[in-house]
Predict the structure of Helix-turn-helix transcriptional regulator.
Amino acid sequence: MTPREYHHPNPDDISLPRVLAALSDPTRLEMICRLADGQEHDSLELADDLPRSTLTYHTRMLREAGVTWTRSEGRACLIRLRRKDLDELFPGVLAALIANAASKAAQE
């Protein structure tokens, strides 16, 4: 079985409006909070109780915006944040979004 290949934008092609649009969805923002530990996670760990088609849509939106790296390993789809690229391009933005989301989650 050939591993699935994923398209990732080059850092020069990542734009702040596209990143913010991808992170404006609560489901995708929750996924990013789960990825904030810096580890790779199987896509199935990133959202609770979502149909696979919906999960695939959200992970694709994050990948195509340049927010995440995705790779396949066997049947798993492993995802991690592109923290270094995002921090270099938009210093503090990712940390602020994650901190804000975590603060709101703690209040609920």
